[in-house]
Amino acid sequence: MKTVLWHGLLTVPRAPTEGLLVLARRGRPSVKPSETVGIPCHNWYEILRILASPVSVIATGNHHIDRKQKETTMLLENKTAVIYGAGGGIGGAVARAFAREGAKVFLTGRQREPVEAVAKESAEAAEVDALDEQAVDKHLQSVIEQAGRVDISFNAVGIPDAKILGLPLVELDVEQFSLPIAAYTRSYFLTARLAARRMIPNKSGVIMTVTALPSRTGTRLNGGYGPAQAAKEALTRDLSAELALQGIRVVGLRPHGMPETSTMKEVFDAKASGMTWEQFQKYLASTTHPRRVMTLEEVANLAVFMASDKASGMTGTIVNLTMGSLDD
User: Fold this and answer.
1) What is the enclosing helix (H) or strand (E) of 219?
2) What is the CATH number of domain 80-321?
């Protein structure tokens, strides 16, 4: 019996006419039986066309593979996720990734239109102000009534940077300085606390949020944004300390400077005087080790993993996605 490993879809040699094809994710140096899918060889051209994603193909002899191995397991299958700030760049990308991995997704935002634009791709949309306790509570109750449970709460809420950026601290009034601290921490606390109350009876759940590089390093002209992000990271650790024994994980993601988001365009307008947009993007890339910026897709993929049971050992921590811009 001979085994041949083929990489990619465009340069696959002629297929065998007998036996089975074993499909596995690209990039895996070793393939475990539980991670493969067996398909009769005579169907392989049609199967690869339908898959529409790069795979590695191992052609084997006439082996019997259990039917269960033919099913591709999605990381968030049978999970119910609620996303706050789903109309934004990160929230929308995470929503699409969660849905793609099998989750039933409920999207919220202060404005319904941008949320519905994301929700039409297989999710439920609602207009919810994440600073309004009653609105968040009422929405979560409707999720319970429809789906029976809440497994994942993801807070990607942001506030317009134009209101808080661009002025030296000595020129800020106290209300402008306090705005992001109050808004970000209130939103995260409310969504996390109300989700946790519904997760505790099931002894299971994941609470997540997004922070940023200024949580850990000094930056100029950011007003109260840095203290707000640092407070969210502290709250992540405190929530985990109290909820971990109830089976609930609490995790944050800390990306840095993604030009795909409207947030970075606001930062550019407020702080990057004398630079073109292209120069500003090159500057952001220059601060990372690989000299490029992280993409929304990469952040969303990490969010999927952290929300899944594969990351069961991760809680009370912030995942550093700054690509080397910030050392832990």
Assistant:
1) none
2) 3.40.50.720
